[in-house]
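Reopening this ticket.

The earlier resolution said the output was attached, but the attachment link was broken on my side. Pasting everything inline this time so it's all in one place.
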Amino acid sequence: MESIQVLIVEDELIIAADIQARLNDMGYITLGPIRSGEKVLEFLMKESLPDIIIMDIMLEGKLDGIETAKQIGLAHKIPIIFLTGNEDELTFTRAKTVDPQAFLSKPFKSTDLQHAIELAIKNSSEGFSPTTDSMSEENTYLLSDRVFIKMKNKMIRLFLNEILWVEADDYYCKIHTKDKEILVGETLKKFYKVLSDMPQWMRIHRSYIVNLNHIEEIDISHVLINNVKVPINKASRDELLDGLVKL
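Inline output:
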């Protein structure tokens, strides 16, 4: 589980430095800043993709933020937050055509920045909606190959391939990785509703979802994952073994 990586695209260095400092204070990892759309596209071709892009509409070079976002969208699914100043109505209308996940108006407060990040993740998520409960401060969103979990005042990223199994815990579910357990404010049924379309996930028991890629052993009443026995019912065991035979 890692902090979210945010790419800053801003041609005014003072503003870029301010955004970077605020994000670092919140616990996020910052990339950049990059001052032009052309450099952004070049960066995305060579480097690991960021989780979120915060980008000013007005940039150096021939590509403004809107056209840059359009080009990014053709190749990648990355949530984009547009920084806006005193743009006219025509520019704002153009910006909406590329479906940014959030807008952030300058000047802004740190709380505005945090809310924009949460909104961008929410608007990009697949199937999950935020949950709020007095017993848990976590909100969970699914985006492509990763989940974002709100813990306290920041969002944490967890790649799906890091998850070994998920266990029901009343109205919550508990995510198990190799080195930690994470309590999430979603029911197991809701969590699995999104994962069920992915072939590596299987609900092998009313209380357990497993990542098939991590199964080490299949027994009569359990599967072994990371040296832990996870219960499996007979129907799921037969289905799992039948699938292996067909392979």
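Reporter confirms the inline version is readable. Confidence is low (pLDDT under 50) at residues 127-138. Helices lie at 13-26, 37-46, 65-75, 89-96, 110-124, 188-195, 234-246.
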